[in-house]
Amino acid sequence: MRAAEKTGLKLQKLTELLAGKNFLLIAMQDSPDPDSLAAAVALRKLANNLGNLQCSIVCGGTVGRGENRALVKYLGLNLRCYAEVDYDKYDLIAMVDTQPGTGNNSLPEGVLPDIVIDHHPIRRRTRSVEFTDIRSGYGAASTILVEYLIEAGITPETPLATALLYGVRSDTQDFGRESSRADIDAIEFLYPFANNRMIGEIQRGKVPRVYYQMLADALRNARAQGPAIITELGDVDNPDMIAEVADLLLREDETTWTMCTGYWNNKMVISLRTSEENNLAGKVVRHMVARKGTGGGHQTYAGGQIPLVKGTKTEREEIERYVEERFLEAIGAQGKPGVRLVRA
Ligand SMILES: [Mn+2]
């Protein structure tokens, strides 16, 4: 089936599902990135236009990365926190850019969403969801929502178009990683409606002073081993920093894999990156957290989390060893000598 045809059918089904409903909860990852934020706002736009629903957009409560905070501010979003949601209040629950049971969102286990729109590989629990649109070949969830907007004849206002454009560009790293023709089409559609000056401002979003301390710690802790750089941030109040450091280290010219870990919300959070296409970062991270946590992702970028039981230093050290060993084993770098990336 052609993409446009599929989108048409999906939109029709979505419209039927929204009909006569009043309250929609739109759930994202705990720490939403630009793609999640843009997709959520686009779904809210659809729900307002196709039906007449009031929407709440929910995340884990922290938006840390400078660009993400800049985007939230620009969109004027009043994000809600999973912990404060009364699920009975909503007629429908939607998830965007994540799925039930992935571990990167705090949707309670007993709550099954009605709608899941995502570009990560499909999860078992998602198969029981009434409305799903999972396109793992797409570079961004926002691209799926852009197709819906076009199909529904809705012109996105400037902030939404800008957010969607930014979402597709950042998830695909300007087409430097997994993307498809559909992502390029979405960008082409969005350009005339977006504010390009704003894109630059979001990209250079302000960061708190503590950002530089975390960056310094991350670099000081970094070790190069074989094709990989590994580092840890310790306790963070901003899990986005873990992903940001993993991205940054991947630019080193002898490195094809990076792993960064940190502790947030009583769990170890892991970000994994690789520069080689066809590498299964998602698979590697699942191997790393096996029996201890959850994880998943794409070919070139993935994340995982392991809940702490006691939270003691010993437990942390054990988990760190476990994760690192399994990571090095998965990429064939065990036993290779490790060197510091920078002078301590
Ligand atoms: Mn995404």
Written account of the structure:
Helix 1 crosses helix 4 (141-151) and helix 4 crosses helix 6 (181-190). The protein has helices at residues 3-18, 34-50, 66-75, 141-151, 158-171, 181-190, 196-203, 210-221, 240-249, 281-288, 313-330, and strands at residues 23-27, 54-59, 80-81, 92-96, 115-118, 131-134, 223-225, 228-235, 257-264, 267-274, 294-297, 301-307, 338-340. With 344 residues, it is of the alpha/beta class. It contains 11 helices and 13 strands. It has 2 domains: 3-203, inorganic pyrophosphatase (n-terminal core) (Alpha-Beta Complex), CATH 3.90.1640.10; 210-340, Roll (Diaminopimelate Epimerase, Chain A, domain 1), CATH 3.10.310.40. Helix content is 39%, strand content 19%. Strand 2 (54-59), helix 3 (66-75) and strand 3 (80-81) form a beta-alpha-beta unit. Bound molecules: manganese (II) ion. Residues 35, 97, 119, 140-141, 171 line the site of manganese (II) ion.
Produce a short descriptive summary.
With 344 residues, the protein is of the alpha/beta class. It has helices at residues 3-18, 34-50, 66-75, 141-151, 158-171, 181-190, 196-203, 210-221, 240-249, 281-288, 313-330; strands at 23-27, 54-59, 80-81, 92-96, 115-118, 131-134, 223-225, 228-235, 257-264, 267-274, 294-297, 301-307, 338-340. A hairpin with a 2-residue loop joins strand 7 and strand 8.
